[in-house]
TrEMBL record:
Location of the Large ribosomal subunit protein uL15/eL18 domain: 75-148
UniProt similarity note: Belongs to the universal ribosomal protein uL15 family.
Protein role: Binds to the 23S rRNA.
Ranges where the record places region Disordered: 20-42
A single GO molecular function term of this UniProt record: rRNA binding
Protein's UniProt keywords contain Calcium: no
GO terms (BP aspect): translation
Assembly and oligomerization: Part of the 50S ribosomal subunit.
Coiled-coil intervals, chain numbering: none
Record HAMAP family: Ribosomal_uL15
Keywords assigned by UniProt, alphabetized: Ribonucleoprotein, Ribosomal protein, RNA-binding, rRNA-binding
Name this polypeptide is given: Large ribosomal subunit protein uL15
Length: 158
């Protein structure tokens, strides 16, 4: 076999139809655009125009609100962190930060920070430096002898 012998499979590619090349071609005269009207002409068509009927994007109600100051946080339970320590993936002597959790494989990526939730058991004495923590998580951490430092989020300039 040579490079010159390589071809697509039979029927894998189809030659494009050249429109507007005489009536014998089957796509001549109007070129598949029908007769007269806005859509037969070159240039801009009205997108979303429904012939004077109220368009769909105006018939449907607008819902919801996007908060520009919202934060996309990773949520991690204390039980999951204890499991990572037991498996030897997380160092108990170093402070628990977003970067440490990503390196341990507890979080897939950093996002805007991490929030610790209180489900599960925590036995290791840990120092947390995170974006947020629930009341139950803080009590579980302090019960195990650790501490929580909530990092302040930098204020976005308007």
């Amino acid at each position: 076999m040579k490079l010159t012998d390589i071809r697509d499979n039979q029927g894998a590619t189809k030659k494009r139809m050249r429109i507007g090349r005489g009536i014998g071609s089957g796509k001549g005269k109007t070129g598949g655009r029908g007769v007269k009207g806005q859509t037969s002409r070159s240039g801009v068509r009205i997108k979303g125009f429904e012939g004077g009927q109220m368009p769909l994007y105006r018939r449907l109600p607008k819902r919801g609100f996007w908060n520009p100051f919202s934060r996309d946080l990773n949520e991690v339970n204390v039980g999951r962190i204890q499991a990572a320590i037991d498996a030897g993936k997380l160092d108990a002597s170093a402070p628990v930060t977003v970067e440490a959790l990503v390196a341990a494989g507890v979080c897939a990526r950093a996002r805007d920070g991490v929030k610790i939730l209180g489900q599960g058991e925590l036995t290791a004495k840990l120092v947390f430096e995170v974006a947020g923590a629930s009341k139950s998580a803080i009590s579980a951490i302090e019960k195990a002898g650790g501490s929580v430092k909530i990092l302040s989020q930098p204020v976005a300039e308007a």
